[in-house]
Amino acid sequence: MKLILVAGARPNFMKIAPLMHALKNHAGIHAVLVHTGQHYDVKMSGQFFEELNIPAPDINLEVGSASHAVQTARIMEGFEKVCIDEQPDAILVVGDVNSTAACTLVASKMGIKTIHYEAGLRSNDRSMPEEINRLVTDAISDVFITTSVDADENLLKENIPAEKIYMLGNLMIDSLVAQLPKAQHTTLKFDLLNRKAQIEFGKNFTDKSYGVMTFHRPGNVDDKESMTSLVKIWGEISEQVPLIFPVHPRTYKNIQQFGLQDLIDSFPHLYFIEPLGYMQFIHLVSRSMFALTDSGGIQEETTYLNIPCLTVRPNTERPVTVWEGSNKLIKLGDIIDEVQLILSGKAKTGKRPKYWDGKTAERIVDVLEQLNTNTQRHENL
Q1: Is the pTM of this model over 0.85?
Q2: Could you say which of 21, 30, 68, 216 is catalytic?
Q3: Same domain, 163 and 216
Q4: Is 185 a catalytic residue?
């Protein structure tokens, strides 16, 4: 069985890594790794391949950044050629980025079986580009691998046959379990953006005495008024507890465009740093008191680590992190009060969802082998 694995954006890499490692021991499945190049910055992708010990991609489409339409079109054009040249039996796409939907569209129209990992996640908010990608991908995929019971329920509501759905767990947690022991040996010492200074663990911040932030959603960072309000809120919080923010390029660009750097610099314990590699990032998160975010993956990592996570969004495609985990959905205006609850020892705690145990990749490979055997049996009839 020739299987194309598609990675496009940084979160995809943490999911692909354990699967690539698990497939090494299975001669019956020949994996071809395609990197679409959707995240093209070295700090946003290349470093992840190195740290997670993923082999260099067999093919890199190098599509780069563009509008949703242009980027999706570039990926489809490049991936169609890959499928013509490689003639795969199936492709496996992960998550909900443009690469996920684009490659699924190509494969579906070429009659190539598509396996979607992280199928069935729903925010029920079609203003989010990721939600459109999820709906499109699941509408035309053939096999659905899910991370939680709510995803199964969503797919069943959308009339996906139960026999095509496999709840196998969370690959992101596989990466976390495998890498955290090594990650905790990485140095937590960072240069501050736009300041000739450094911060270092043990000096400027200590174990369970700081917050980690990740923000990049358009609704939070693309509007000057919203972005300005956020910076003021971060600054007020940082007067009580240091905040460390590995800044997403999109967010940093808007900060400069909106003229907010001077305001940020006026708060001495509001620490803006470059995007981090995976190892340093999970080390930083694992020692934090809480996370403040609008991102997706960190909701899962903090749930596994039982670290309070405040997600500044009206909804989440990962509701299991709210129902069972340590995640909490909040409004922008509630951030300060929610942080105060954490500082006063009243943080939300949770438990790890079923199959979030570091063994998801093994279960996925078992299903892939089963699907391969069934296909061969059908062809021999």
Answers
A1: yes
A2: 216
A3: no
A4: no
